Amino acid sequence: VNTVRLIQQKRDGGRHTDDELAALIRGYVAGEIPDYQLSAWAMAVYFRGMDVDETAGLTRAMLESGEQLKWPAGTTLRADKHSTGGVGDKISLVLAPLLAGLGFTVPMISGRGLGATGGTLDKLESIPGFRTDLALADVVRIAREAGCVMTGQTSQLVPADKKLYALRDVTGTVPSIPLITASILSKKVAEGLDGLVLDVKCGSGAFMKDVRGARALAESLSSVGSRLGVKVRARLSDMSQPLGRMVGNLVEVLESLEVLAGGGPADVRQLTLTLAADVCLLLGAAGSHHEGLSKSAACLDSGEALRRFERMVGAQGGRLDKLAAAAPMSEIVAPRSGYVARMETESIGQAVIALGGGRRVMSDVIDHRVGLEMLCRLGDPVRAGQPVARMFALDRGGKEARALILEALVIADEPAEVPPLLLE
Ligand code: URA
Asked: Best label site of 119, 184, 274, 298, fewest CB within 10 Å?
């Protein structure tokens, strides 16, 4: 493969064939194409973009860099969900066991925190003993036994993404819709899925701050997903305030357990049920979205989703009976009276990182017990001195986190319009 020619072609706005993309990815994974050439190519893609055919070709090339999950005959339909990441977004922790309870097989390969957004694996590791480094054979076995499994990417599964993502992370080429699409979908298609729902976040705590960008990403993911043989339904949801009350790791697991027990914050329950209903409709388990919603609510309220969660945790070595307590709590109060008009949600995520609940460099070790509980939501009236958040802190970052939260909460004289949770 003439890598220089491919870089020039993309730099000048040309398009690649499937064979060219396959050769590029094969050469990169084999170590024949150096990082500096792939960086130049990724930057050319960042500026010039790729059409749907090229993006599908790249996704396929990445998919073929590793193994794919093989499902024995008799395995129920495979479903999964991907979220583009948000603050307080613990939906996967509830949705995976809920889908298992509805009869699907859910082999969820999850990620760690990225930027200000938390990661499912980091949250699950608040459970003592919980293993997130399963081999592919164990992923299949546990998914079949418990109905769901949640684990990390291994070098067996899409090694091309592991290598390319690490390169993009340090070359300013993460926010490219075709590169994001290929990265996400290569991993999802490798799971051997029948259906995938996408929760594309939009707002001050999301990677896409406006509806136009979020919509473009959703459209790219759906059209490329369909070309690779996975039924996809994408939804835009609001991330202009944290999802639920809790932001952190252990505290988000505790809140997820409340939702699994039929309680918890209304927004977490609503979004989880909506995405479950999307899967039911997509894979023919319900005739209408409404029917999907009531089946999902019944499953959640029956305790079946909670039992599935407990089975999965047990199968992955976790001990829910040994959960620690959250770190010591202190309150943050409103500096003035008014209405909560806006939240800089990304700063709320940064506050958790300051407390040690997320990473600034890859080698940072997470304190799972730290986090926040938000006591107000957009549109709420507040009085000066009223508690607006609780902070669970150990020995680091308390002052910085407090300042970040006070900055993040914009209190105005007039009530502002609150975006709906479900956008499109
Ligand atoms: N998540 C991924 O897995 N890949 C991206 O490129 C962005 C978010």
From this structure: 298
Strand partners, 412: 339
Integer Cα distance of 130 and 142 in angstroms: 13
From 174, 176, 177, 188, the mutation candidate for ligand 1 (largest count of ligand atoms within 8 A of CB) is 174
Give the number of other CB atoms < 10 A from CB of residue 325: 9
| Cα dihedral value 215, 221, 226, 231, nearest 10 | -90
Q: In what order do the strands lie in the sheet with 338-343?
A: 381-382, 338-343, 409-412
The dihedrals phi and psi of 340, each to the nearest 5 degrees, come to -75, 105
Q: What is the pLDDT of residues 356-384, one digit of tens each?
A: 999 888 788 999 999 999 999 999 999 99
Its pTM surpasses 0.85: yes
Positions marked catalytic: 82, 161, 168, 183, 187
Question: Which residues are 373's β-sheet partners?
Answer: 246, 390
Q: Is the beta carbon of 279 within 6 A of some atom in ligand 1? A: no
Distances 408 to 237, 340, 346, 401 between C-alpha atoms, Å: 20, 10, 8, 10
Residue 131: Cβ-neighbour burial (10 angstroms; 0-12, 13-18, 19+): middle
Enclosing H/E stretch for 108: strand 106-110
Please list the residues that pair with 82 across neighbouring strands.
198
Direct distance between the N- and C-terminal alpha carbons of the chain, in angstroms, rounded to an integer: 42
